[in-house]
Design goal:
single chain, 193 residues, alpha+beta, SMI1/KNR4-like, 5-stranded antiparallel beta sheet, 6 helices, 22% strand, Molybdenum cofactor biosysnthesis protein MoeA, KNR4/SMI1_regulator, Knr4/Smi1-like_dom
Length: 193
């Protein structure tokens, strides 16, 4: 995990320093304990290791108050450090997204739609329904799963570290399956100009 994530951080620091500044500091013991309590089980070691290095890629995000008094997050473009505009979730965001997915399954009677052991880790910039999760069941390590709107998560990579390695490879090669990575004024941008 440390090697894969280190490659990403190094690439961002050298090539896209504005995007590197979107990385949050390491998760604290309190952050990890809050996530454990929200999940109802231990945070997988691989995920905790990642969060202990950077607790999300949302350091530049802000909030906005709506007329009804509700406060909503406003994502900064530099948070999108992964292909197709995906961000790294921090402990609080993981807990919120996990609760949303579990509630969706329970309220709609969709048994197996989002298993209790599936922990979201990477999500699309808009906060919709696309991203990657870790299967914390421990039955075959901690594979990374990919999910999309209306679909049950499917295997994407044998591990979170392998998934992050593939993202690091994409940064270093300049492309993720034909989806180009480019830097504009110190910020990483994925996709066509």
């Amino acid at each position: 995990m440390q090697s894969a994530w280190g490659r990403i951080v190094h690439w961002l620091t050298v090539n896209a320093p504005a995007s590197a500044q979107a990385l949050c500091g390491p998760a604290t013991d309190e952050d990890v304990e809050g996530l454990r309590a929200a999940l109802g089980f231990e945070v997988p070691d691989v995920l905790e290791a990642l969060l202990r290095m950077n607790n999300g890629s949302t350091a530049k995000d802000t909030t906005r108050s709506l007329p009804n008094g509700r406060v909503v997050p406003v994502r900064h473009l530099d948070a999108a450090i992964f292909p197709y505009g995906k961000i790294l979730l921090g402990c609080t965001e993981i807990a919120t997204e996990y609760a949303k997915w579990r509630r969706t399954e329970e309220e709609n009677g969709l048994d197996g739609y989002w298993r209790a052991s599936w922990v979201p880790v990477i999500q699309d910039f808009e906060g919709q329904y696309y991203g990657y999760a870790v299967d914390a069941s421990g039955t075959s390590g901690f594979p990374a799963l990919e999910y999309g709107e209306g679909s049950v998560p499917v295997a994407a990579s044998p591990s979170l570290a392998a998934l992050l390695d593939s993202f690091a490879d994409a940064l270093e090669s300049g492309s993720w399956g034909g989806w180009p990575a480019r830097v504009e004024k110190g910020s990483l941008r994925w996709g066509e100009e």
